[in-house]
Amino acid sequence: MPITQQHAGQPVAHAQLTGIRPAGDRAILVELSSLDSVLSLQAQLTAHPQPGQIDVIAAAATVLITADSPQAVQALARYVSGLDLQAPAEADSTLVTIDVVYDGEDLDRVAALTGLDRGAVVAAHTGQLWTAAFAGFAPGFAYLTGENPSLEVPRRHSPRTAVPAGAVALGGAYSAVYPRQSPGGWQLIGRTEAAMWDLDRENPALVRPGDTVRFSAVRARAITVRQRQTTTSQSPAGEPARAGLAVRKPGLQATVQDLGRPGYASLGVSSAGAVDRGALRRANRLVGNAEDAAGLELLFGGLELEALSDQVLAVTGAAVPLHIEPAGEAAQQTTAARQPGCDAPFALLAGEKLTVGRATSGLRAYLGIRGGLAGPEALGSRSTDTMSGIGPEPLQAGTILAVQAPKPGSVVGHPEVSPLPEPSQATVLRVVPGPRQDWFSPDTLQNFLAQEWTVTPQSNRIGLRLNGQGLTRSRDGELASEGTVRGAVQVPPEGQPVLFLSDHPVTGGYPVIAVVVSADLDKAAQLPPAAPCGSPLRNPRQPCPKHLRKAPMRKVLIANRGEIAVRIARACDDAGLDSVAVYADPDADALHVRAATEAYSLSGARPQETYLDIEKILAVAAKSGADAVHPGYGFLSENAGFAQAVIDAGLTWIGPSPEAIRLLGDKVSAREVAVRAGAPLAPGSDGPVASAEEVRAFAEQVGLPVAIKAAFGGGGRGLKVVRSLADIEESFDSAVRESLAAFGRSECYVEKFLDRPRHVEAQVIADTHGNVVVVGTRDCSLQRRHQKLVEEAPAPFLTPEQRAAIHASAKAICREAGYVGAGTVEYLLDGSGFLSFLEVNTRLQVEHPITEETSGVDLVAAQAGHCGGGEASRTGGPGTPGPRL
Question: Cα separation of 603 and 609, whole Å?
Answer without folding.
Answer: 8
